[in-house]
Amino acid sequence: ASQLWNYPSLLRSLLLSFTITSVLVLAIVKGSAYVFAANGWTTPEYADLSEFLLRNYNLVILHLCITGALMWFAEWWLHRKRPVVKAPVRITATQAGLVGLFQTCAAIFHGISRSGSTMSAAVLSGLDRSTAARYSFLLSFPIFLAAALYEFLKVSQLQSLETLAWTPMLLGTVVSGIVGYLCIAVFIRFVGRYSLRGFSLYCW
After folding, report:
1. Cα-Cα end-to-end distance for the chain
2. pTM, whole model, 2 decimals?
């Protein structure tokens, strides 16, 4: 169903969602790092809010439960509104902005699923499950590339690049990319036909 997209509108929406997430995440991470350093809260385990939340396993558990509740609510909303998405599909600025905000929460609050939260945001904004899943999948490309680049820059400051195990890293990237693509292809078909509540139970 890729030919059903309005591509100029899709690219603008992806850019808007990506920009909102990137700006907010950088602001939160850098801002919290400054606050942590100023108050002496920095430790070897964490230096900003995102890393602190990742180290607090009880909060990660709570965030998984929130993800499950969010998808359950999105499924209820879907049956209540029964959206009709016409071809070619157009993602509005409001829908793209809402997805970007939910994706920001997933990036900071570890345990909140990126795909689960963005799909839920898309459904709550008026899209059907299949369209929401496709948009979430397309949005993952720039986000994961940006996250990988950010982590690479962090690692490059800690040690010499020559010491990195390049072959296993590249092999792992290629294999995970191929497997991820195949899983997503099956996942989109599944989500288009079945409820999100199964994923809610999985998170819980």
Report:
1. 32
2. 0.83
